Amino acid sequence: MCYKHIVSESNGVFISPSYAFQDMGPVYLFTNENISGTLKTAGDISGARVLTVGASGDHAFEGLLAGASRVDTFDINSAQKNVIELKSHMIQHLGYSDFMNFFFDSHDFFYHKILHPIQPYFSKNLNDFLKICTGENMRSNFKYRAAHTSDYNIKNLQYIATPQNYERLRTHLVKKPDFIHCDIANLSAKLTGKYDLILLSNIFDYMYSNSRDTEERLTQFSRNILSPLITNNLNPSGRVYFHYMWGANPGAWINFVQYYSSKHNPKLSLTARTINAAYHSDEYDVVLYASQKHR
Questions:
Q1: Which of 68, 66, 46, 21 is nearest to 201 (CA)?
Q2: What angle do CA 160, 166, 172 make, to 5 degrees?
Q3: Segments in the chain below pLDDT 70
Q4: How far apart are CA 270 and CA 289, in angstroms?
Q5: What is the C-alpha separation between 159 and 190, in angstroms, rounded?
Q6: Burial category of 116 from C-beta neighbours within 10 Å (exposed 0-12, middle 13-18, buried 19 and up)
């Protein structure tokens, strides 16, 4: 099924009924990527302005912990804003053990009593969200919780890898990251200003699925998504990370990028980088990023 857009008149966000993600749908609580590994390939991002997919907020928190001066988020699912707000309040006002128990302890998982001291900070939307996330069926409100599996390397989430990192993030989290409710196809038009780094997670996986192959999909994605972002919303030396692959063959992807660039001579510069795998069962993950081609 190709990625076709229909407009929701209530909020102006374009979502196909068959698309894997819907507004106010089940939310991600944690990532299943090695975000800190991705950021290491970007070099020193101290003082950088970052745009990232909203999702669980983990991309934003890792960016702030790595030194970004500002992080903005976007997501097609506006319910993810509640997860980001919840985590932000917890990091700012609760201890590390409360955070870890609330999200990871089988007995205290989503135990609302942990939140009572900080509920005065919550927005109405967050309180409504938490009311839904109760009872026997509360887990149906969540997509897979990858960080809870024994195979996922929790150290890939630096902000909760140690109490010290958690406390350090608190000093950077002056306010919760800004949130833009938007689909990827209309993202560039919604943005103001330019960024040093843009993280799109693995949205590419869900785009143009009726295309013949990866080569054709990448051509469409480059033309419709990457080119507008890089032209309009990226600083000259910036990068857009647009594809994350688990357990991938690094050599195969490096060769593919070289082949694609030589055949199509795209206006963008494409690069494949190897990072440590998010899961213990894999050796490597691979990320792709695009940047301006300097002549």
A1: 21
A2: 125
A3: 1-22, 24, 135-137, 144-148, 295
A4: 6
A5: 29
A6: exposed
Nearest to 288 by CA among 275, 52, 68, 63: 275
Sign of the CA dihedral with 241 first, then 242, 248, and 250 last: negative
Residues 6+ apart with CB under 8 A from 106: none
Q: Please state the φ and ψ torsions of residue 273, each to the nearest 5 degrees.
A: -130, 145
- 158 alpha carbon, distance to own chain's centre: 15
Residue 209 pLDDT: 81
Its sign, for the CA torsion 26, 105, 130, 125, is negative
CA dist., res. 285 & res. 250, Å (int): 8
CB 159 within 8 A of CB 166: yes
Q: Provide CB contacts within 8 A for 74, sequence distance 6+.
A: 51, 52, 53, 54, 179, 180, 181, 182, 187, 190
Residues 119 and 219 sit within 8 Å (Cβ to Cβ): no
Residue 27 pairs in a beta bridge with: 142
**CA gap 15, 200 in Å, rounded:** 17
**For residue 281, which amino acid is it?**
S
CB 92 within 8 A of CB 169: no
pLDDT at 136: 66
Side-chain-side CA neighbours of residue 197 (13 Å):
27
Q: Which amino acid is at 267?
A: K
Residue-wise DSSP of 77-131: -TTHHHHHHHHHHHHHHS-HHHHHHHHH-TTTTT-GGGGGGGGGG--HHHHHHHH
